[in-house]
Write a structure and sequence with these properties.
Elements lengths: L7 E5 L3 E8 L3 H14 L5 E3 L1 E2 L2 E2 L10 E5 L2 E5 L4 E5 L5 E2 L2 E2 L2 H7 L1 E10 L5 E10 L4 E6 L21 H11 L17
Amino acid sequence: MTTATEPVIVDEPGLGTLEVWRLPATEEVLRGLLTMLFEQYWDRVTFGPLIQGAAYELRAERRPERIGSQDGYLTVHFGASHFHLCVGPTEGDPRSPTPPELAARRQTARAELFRRLNRDGAPDVWGLRLLNGHGEEQITVLFPNPFLTDADKPAAEPDWDKLGVWDHVRRVYLGLGPDAKDRAGTRFVHP
């Protein structure tokens, strides 16, 4: 699947400058992408909403027991914990249907791959985020960062192998190969 290959530059308060590639916010695309990330890379990604005033940077402790979908919701089960994301049309229970305006608010309306450019102009954060029909963040999935250790500490030297998830997603969803710009930085710069 290939989408627009030129990113849009946006400035986000609290995050800084982002290069953003929009993805089709369809149930098929989102279910495939999220299933791939959580089945293949569950032990390497960090996920949760990143909103003003709160950042949930969670890591799965095990591979999902199952990933399923029903009524537009993708559910990722890790055992005792799980999460639901409304990535497709939702109607609710026939005895208690979801009003159309609420269904439109719940469903992912915007999906984007992004990389943050630090004040040196080099990428230092890579990820995916989904926003609902009201512009509220549903989830951000942060990809492995070459400037951070697995314990989330600054790495002595960048580990460029960690960009493998980003490179794979770019290839599959944008039709783009690895980008030398991703390997141009020397450190993570906190905004």
